[in-house]
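Figure 6 in text form: structure in, sequence out.
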């Protein structure tokens, strides 16, 4: 029988692995000379598919690795990340049910999320 504690350890290791993987990809892409932005989940409320600390790495060609939410939220984050790469200005993005864009970006389930997007300088 699997003990609940061991399940929690595996889940936490998976979360850590996914976060580290995105950061490793950001570093590798930067070393390759790609222009890169990093999106990080700062805060969630209610229903949210990804926890605080989750990352999405985006390059200037629109390639991405990782996840900050899923669905259309990530499409919006990628679009904003391309602008961040172009102008160098970090952005704090907020998506939620009170936001008129909530349905458009896929947060109709009652949650909200704050994501910080910054350019990574290599």
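Output sequence:
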């Amino acid at each position: 029988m699997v003990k609940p504690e061991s399940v929690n350890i595996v889940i936490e290791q998976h979360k850590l692995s996914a976060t580290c993987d995105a950061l490793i990809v950001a570093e590798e892409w930067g070393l390759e000379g790609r222009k890169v932005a990093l999106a990080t989940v700062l805060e969630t409320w209610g229903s949210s598919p990804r926890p605080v600390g989750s990352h999405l790495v985006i390059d200037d060609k629109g390639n991405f690795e990782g996840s900050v939410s899923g669905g259309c939220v990530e499409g919006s984050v990628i679009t904003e990340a391309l602008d961040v790469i172009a102008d160098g200005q970090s952005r704090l993005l907020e998506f939620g049910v009170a936001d008129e864009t909530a349905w458009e970006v896929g947060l109709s389930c009652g949650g909200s999320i704050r994501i910080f997007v910054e350019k990574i300088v290599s």
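Caption detail: Residues 4-120 form one domain.
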